[in-house]
Design a protein that fits this description.
Blueprint lengths: L5 E6 L3 H12 L4 E3 L10 E5 L4 H13 L5 E6 L4 H10 L3 E4 L4 H21 L8 E7 L6 H15 L5 E5 L7 H5 L7 H5 L7 H7 L1 E2 L5 E3 L13 H14 L2 E7 L4 H8 L3 E6 L3 H16 L8 E5 L6
Helix pairs in contact: 2-3, 9-10
Length: 312
Amino acid sequence: MPEETIKIKISANNVLLKKRFQDIISSTKEFCIQQVTEKKPPDLLVQDLSGDYEKDFRFIESLLSSNAVEEVFVTSQYSGSDLLLGAMRSGAKEFLVQPLNEQEVKQALERFKKRRYSKKDVSPNLIKSGRLINVLGSKGGVGTTTVAVNLAVSLAQNIAKESVALIDMNTVFGDIPLFLTLKATHHWGAITNNIDRLDEMFLANVLSKHPSGVRVLPPSSHLNGDRPATPEITSRLITLMKKMFDLIIIDSGQSLTETGLKALSMSDDILLVSILSLPCLHNTNKILRSLSGLRQPHGDKVRIIINRYLKK
């Protein structure tokens, strides 16, 4: 049975450098350059380092941590020890010094191929399917975001091998960036406005990374012109994230809209947050009855969290 072709993406502004890579790769049997029109993530990314090395390393780390690409090689005209160390810490597997040596490039590709197939021999049919935990509030102010944020950060810090993502479904009044002191450059609007471009690499660039390791999709307000989230968009997003992450935490706020219900239907666990006050307990009862009345079997998924103890 012939081996599958391994697709490589070359990320470089230097036309001559790209041409050199293409010539070397085209002389191999197992590798090929991925076409620009292909939406599927490449097997291997070759990243030419720009002058902003820290930005490049953060980008590489974000791709690898979200499984948007299998491996990354870096290439540069410079090979100082600090640069090599930074590349290694970002997760890059090979450092190719320019001008390129054809034999060195081919040896690096051969090492990648061996690593790739050794992984497949261990678990040939392993496909990641992350666990989705949905945190739902019985009422505003009960601590839904507090529970969601602390759960995500705790999981990321205490289960080192697990990748964790956090989604803010409060598209108008979401507070996750505030709770994490996170300055995000992208948010939900990048997903809803570009749903046709949604793939692992696109999503990896949209998600913000917190120092704890949690990857965050912050809220946006559709009142500012962004396309609102729909059940279809939410379904595509969650399906993709379950392939990329081991654990996905959703802060649903108090949303029982069609979009919120879609997220609930795809959840493995639902944490219903309440406090011991009459209005909250009344709402909690109504939500439990509503969930039990839906077609999807939510009953065995729901766990109630009493977030604060009230003496009276």
